[in-house]
């Protein structure tokens, strides 16, 4: 009960604080999506002083429908769809208190306020770990990779540890198909433009102080003026261990392991990417785990990721205990390509 009270009160304070002092964040990232969707493809990766579009060209496929609506209605629909996806993916794994904590978590509120895509991607990753169809599971992870690959870097490793070769194959097929589709629709030069824009984006991140809200070992190393490569290697090692160690956990644990391991191995991610971890952290908080509150609140740069890794290491062994009939059923489902 204490952990729930602390998390709830802190989340409410955060919501009030953001609503009063950081209303300038409203629709900040969504505005970039809408601008790119309504502009010529050739201008998607042009260099700007701020609010650049750092996503791969496959993201252009998913935001193109935004051109059908004006900015306000499009944002409203975006938020409703994101929340609906989060609730739909989480409700089978969370009780009412944990689901409520999920919806008011600071990373989720921050993500929704700015119009970021991480809430929807977190729901998609959790759903991919819950669904029986290996085609659907692999396809969902491929879609997530086509938007933010840094959230699913460790998905192939976790699937390989589970011997879920069908999901790996179908995920690869879908992702390659999406890449080829963007080449056909937008031209290979769009990919060249994206790659050419990344150095500028990195310089803007440093210049505009975005590093202050980064969460990965490598990006925090840059913030602290340390060489990022050793931290990238260390993070990737820890992330790989988390993915393998948690590979037999339930869907909530596996999705959190994929995201945690991937972010630890990523060169860059920021606070709203923690929204993809909130269902697991809310589950932990609702069960009285005080340390999980630190991760749930999402502050302190890399600390939430380390807290999540710690919580995963604590609960994964206990959560994989299933009866023989359930294990046999799960094994049969994983071996069938729908």
Structural summary, described in words:
It is a single chain. This protein has helices at about 1-20, 30-40, 60-65, 70-90, 95-105, 105-115, 120-130, 135-145, 155-160, 165-185, 190-205, 215-225, 230-245, 250-265, 280-285, 290-295, 305-320, 325-335. It has one domain. Helix 13 (about 230-245) packs antiparallel against helix 14 and helix 14 (about 250-265) runs antiparallel to helix 17 (about 305-320). Mean pLDDT is about 90; it is low at about 320-338. The relative contact order is 0.14. The chain is an all-alpha fold and about 350 residues long. Helices cover about 70% and strands about 0% of the residues. It is globular and about 55 Å long.
Strand content: under 5%
Q: Which structural category do the helix and sheet elements fall into? A: mainly alpha
First CA to last CA: what distance? 43 Å
Largest sheet: none
Shape descriptor: globular
User: What order do the helices and strands follow?
Assistant: HHHHHHHHHHHHHHHHHH
| Domains, number | 1
